[in-house]
Design brief:
With about 150 residues, this protein is mainly α. It contains six helices and no strands. It is a multi-pass membrane protein.
Length: about 150
């Protein structure tokens, strides 16, 4: 069977005529399980955005407490640079190391580690959302995730 350039690729199941849109069975969604996942992924997006912006507002006080205001720009940059070069290191470990940082250099390295974890959280969260939500409902759930991200940025 050969296909021409003007002939549609998909054919309707109910008749021998070609249809412009195929008939698709929409899967039934288990809303109880999906709502738990939606809440978890929204919290993930909120914390990812919050972690990236909370330090930006506190760069001055943090760097002055270490008497290293000349290194303040590295504190935000290390997190954001690592965020885009994500690996699945733990954000919790990076944030714990930030909490016990004895000096500015250690804090910058810990923020880089936390940024790698934050990038991993963002990537894994998007992948999970794409896997568990059918494409017909994905826009709604991504909208909820974007609202959570906006709340974290605010």
């Amino acid at each position: 069977m050969t296909t021409g350039e003007r002939r549609p690729l998909l054919q309707s199941q109910d008749s021998g005529h070609y249809a412009s849109t195929p008939k698709v069975d929409v899967p039934v969604i288990d809303t109880d399980k999906l709502s738990y996942n939606k809440v978890g992924l929204s919290v993930n997006r909120f914390l990812n955005a919050f972690d990236g912006t909370v330090v930006a507002t506190l760069l001055g006080p943090i760097s002055s407490s270490f008497n290293a205001t000349n290194m303040a720009s590295w504190l935000g940059t290390s997190y954001e640079y690592s965020l885009y070069h994500a690996s699945l290191t733990s954000t919790a470990i990076g944030n714990f190391l930030c909490a016990i940082a004895p000096n500015m250099e250690f804090l910058i390295a810990a923020r880089a580690l936390a940024g790698m974890g934050g990038g991993g959280l963002s990537t894994v969260g998007s992948t999970i959302m794409s896997d568990i939500v059918p494409i017909t409902h994905r826009g709604i759930y991504q909208g909820f995730g974007n609202l959570a991200f906006g709340g974290g940025m605010g």
